[in-house]
Amino acid sequence: MAQKTRTTPAGTPTNVTQNHTKGGIGESTLRPDGTLKVTGEFAYSSDMWHEDMLWGQTLRSTVAHALIENIDISEAVAMPGVYAVLTYDDLPAKMKNYGLEIQDTPVLANGRVRHHGEPVALVAADHPETARRAAAKIKIDYKELPLVTDEASATAPDAPLIHEGRDDHHAGHVPHPNIVHRQPIIRGNVEEARKRADVIVEGEYTFGMQDQAFLGPESGLAVPAEDGGVDLYVATQWLHSDLQQIAPVLGLPPEKVRMTLSGVGGAFGGREDISMQIHACLLALRTGKPVKIVYNRFESFFGHVHRHPAKLHYEHGATKDGKITHMKCRIVLDGGAYASASPAVVGNASSLSVGPYVIDDVDIEAIALYTNNPPCGAMRGFGAVQACFAYEAQMDKLAAKLGMDPVEFRQLNAMEQGTIMPTGQVVDSPAPVAELLRRVKARPMPPEQQWLAAGEAADVRALPGGLSNTTHGEGVVRGVGYAVGIKNVGFSEGFDDYSTARVRLEVINGEAVAMVHTAMAEVGQGGVTVHAQIARTELGVTQVTIHPADTQVGSAGSTSASRQTYMTGGAVKNTCEAVRAKALEIGRRKFGSYHPAWATAELLLEGGKVVTDGGEVLADLADVLEGEEIDVELEFRHRPTQAFDLVTGQGNGHVQYTFAAHRAVVEVDTELGLVKVVELATAQDVGKALNMLSVVGQIQGGTTQGLGVAVMEEIIVDPKTAKVRNPSFTDYLIPTILDTPTIPVDVLELADPNAPYGLRGLGEAPTLSSTPAVLAAIRNATGLELTKTPVRPEHLTGTGV
Amino acid sequence: MRVNFTVNGRKQEADDVWEGESLLYVLRERMGLPGSKNACEQGECGSCTVRLDGVPVCSCLVAAGQVEGREVVTVEGLADYAAHRADSHPGGGCASGSCGTSIDAAKRWTAHGSESPRAQDGQTGEAGGLSPIQQAFIDAGAVQCGFCTPGLLVAADELLERNSEPSDADIREALSGNLCRCTGYEKILDAVRLAAARQEEAV
Ligand code: FES
Ligand code: FES
Question: Is residue B138 less than 8 Å (CB to CB) from chain A?
Fold first, then answer.
């Protein structure tokens, strides 16, 4: 299996071109990486290539919970083409675990596996197939242990402990060592408020385990360096967080691990945790050769954490005139074998469990469990998604019981600017919840029976079941449902959330040109577009170069929590302002004596010139900068937040809130239990749209992921074995273009006075309300209660549970 | 084994190909053509779509040996391929005679109010050397992470070759084998409508 006749090696990522040089903020500038992406030249992490490189392969556990009694690598090592086989014993440093908040995740299993698919051994070989075959030749003797798979088995007094001897900072206040974190929130007096209720509704809801299913699987290339360090080209969401976790387990100082972002094929939270990064570095350092690891789809399902499946129990009461009196809820999230982002997901699930409503008397508890199920962590919507599914079902139940219109009922209870959250935090910027609902409701309905539109035989493509030709319209009923949700933006609970930007301004070929260097992970969201727009706006130049993201500049924080435009966008803005001040200072020094306005007027940079606020041109920026170069690196922080009190849940925990509403129209074949979503109209407040084309793209993409959960997406874990049953795109279904309806988008721009340009993080909110809207529409069509995601045919036909 | 075939109009020879290697692997790892993507290697996602003697196929499901003596077009060759087609069949044509999207309708989509004002700001068509469908994907905002894009472009280009005025249902049917996780597909539909309308306009 000799390798390469390859002619054009792909090396360092070259992931932006400068074709698109127009557009400041507010304009729908096109992506600077668009041309490379449509020609196939954009270098994704799986495209990295190095002469003489090896392929890495992970061997993963075939059982969920077991002691490893013996590992025999002899046959694998003996295979021709194999360069290294590594197990736990080969780890070079004292530190052998990593983790986002709690370092509980072993780089390679240390005598025990805690979930199906946990990495146990690594192979490097000269062909990916050789590596796979060698990994298959490693023999492992497992002694299976009893499983912990749900709340009852995890919190039983004699439950096996997933992590013995916990000493993390949550360990001291959780009621059981198999609970990662617990956050109660108590406000008002629920028992008193309950007495005022004319109706009370209760519900038990189950949210399935969703996968991020980004299309570009985990992959990257580690290249050993002469100084004993390593250069890593990888797709991730946060270079510096990876670095902090990688360096200690390699036994290297951070400056010897140099990371460069390579092209990322989507992320959605699934790249917040380490996957192949450390493994590739270990193999590269051991073999002295570049090592590339590319997961296939099967392995990708084991290579990243998923969305927490959840059980949610809610009680709401309301008076007969439609005011909500109180809310009680208990949310149990299954965090799986390792902590990942579970503590923060608990914080979000609890603090956002009330939804975008005014409810003064609440009793809330959210917990995340340690179990032997697959580890769960960050995914778009982060704890707010599960809660939204449940509280929105409750809103419909309450409205129905009161005989009220579900939208009017929501509007009557909608929060607004000034509302106090259950955590005691005052919502101090616009919260147009009622207006968003009004907008989706006011939108014209899609025509009935669209399959008849042609006027001839039914176009089965427009019917549930599609080309399977399962119905011609008989037995098909329509339903309409509404939902609205609230999500926080940025990292909460006192986290020191910051981002760094470096901006250089210089003259190249007689023109002033800006270079923006950040470590922001561009995962498809369009940050690179927006950074150039910000630099053009602030510096009045046309040419902006986006430097590849790497660890040679300060941290940009994570591309998650809807925070990057706010945070790194904010950092670019602030840094540009500092650069502008320096440019004007140089101008004053050089030309100040020629015109009094240099000293007296408010000066701006526009169209490559220094102008007064009255529009008088004082100098060419290129002349000002001639012979000088301005280079500034600054950090940007949002206003501080506080940790939630561990008993009462009180605290100003969040930076900013963001809101979206959906109206779903569905058609259901009630005989076969098939659903066709006809339209998913959405309205969202984005504060200020820096790039409307990208804004709409984000909202439509988020909406589609919510649709997926509603009707098809779920990782199925066998409750008896804790093994994943559907790790493939054949069995784990994500929406195709046939499953996805038109998604009309209505964008509001109500500025947040505290945010850069007034913007509101936007990527996650549409994922929240999309799922409950579809569920509500299916309930409306069928009259069924439907308390689980995803809705499957058997739930609609009464042939299953 | 040795495999001889034509890729994007150029004769290629791959040596020491192991009999289990897919066309996708040979293209990516031996030919240095990583444009075709590997997202499932199972025929489920369409990211690896190429044309084999003109027919769109999932290259992850084609054994390298099966392409002996045949012609492959990947996303890297799409612009050339489309240009060549335009030369030999100016205007293309509507095979069924009952084609759906009118130029007016497409213009409405591209000019969705504030959603995509770039049709007016002179940013369209600037890259040059792209096929109409590639340019339309950029202009319509149909590219986010872009991992699905190469496969979608090859499939969409083949659709437009067959059917120059596809209805929305036609587009959905033709692209139903290509998964995209980022966009929600709406802008992909916009892009195909836009490319179809521009082709129409060019006639
Ligand atoms: S990689 Fe070939 S269809 Fe998915
Ligand atoms: S999968 Fe990311 S743009 Fe389609």
Answer: yes
For ligand 2, whether the C-beta of B144 sits within 6 Å is: yes
Number of domains in chain A: 3
- Write down the CATH number for the domain with range B3-74: 3.10.20.30
User: In Å, how far are A49, A390, B22, B25 from A54, measured between CA atoms?
Assistant: 10, 48, 19, 15
Query: Considering the domain boundaries, does residue A567 fall inside one?
Result: yes
DSSP string, B178-192: ---SSS-SHHHHHHH
Region B173-191: what's the mean pLDDT?
97
Kind and range of the H or E element at B86?
helix B78-88
DSSP A605-643: EETTEEEETT--EEEEHHHHHTT--EEEEEEEEPPP--P
**Nearest-angstrom CA–CA distance, A528 and A309:** 33
Burial of A728 (0-12, 13-18, 19+ CB in 10 A): middle
Q: Are residues A632 and A657 in the same domain?
A: no
User: Which pLDDT does position A457 carry in this prediction?
Assistant: 81
Matching CATH number, B132-201, of 1.10.150.120, 3.40.50.150, 3.40.50.10490, 3.40.50.1110: 1.10.150.120
- In degrees rounded to 5, what are phi and psi of residue B114? -75, -10
> How far does the CA of residue B201 sit from the closest CA of chain A (Å)?
22
Among residues A287, A273, A197, which one has the least CA distance to residue A241? A273
Residues of B in contact with A734 (CB under 8 A): 179, 181
Q: Report ipTM for this prediction.
A: 0.95
A383 φψ region: left (φ > 0), alpha (ψ -120 to 50), beta (else): left
- Quote the CA–CA distance of A570 and A531 in Å, as a whole number: 9
Give the tens place of pLDDT for each residue, A320-359.
Answer: 999 999 999 999 999 999 999 999 999 999 999 999 999 9
- The per-residue pLDDT for A711 is 98
Return all residues near A314 (Cβ < 8 A) that are at least 6 apart: A202, A203, A205, A327, A328, A329, A390, A391, A394
Q: Is the CB of B148 under 6 A from ligand 2?
A: yes
Closest residue in B to A40 (Cα) is B35
Whole-number Å distance between alpha carbons of A761 and A429: 13
Residues A189-237 have pLDDT tens digits of: 999 999 999 999 999 999 999 999 999 999 999 999 999 999 999 999 9
Query: For residue B139, which phi and psi values (nearest 5 degrees)?
Result: -65, -35
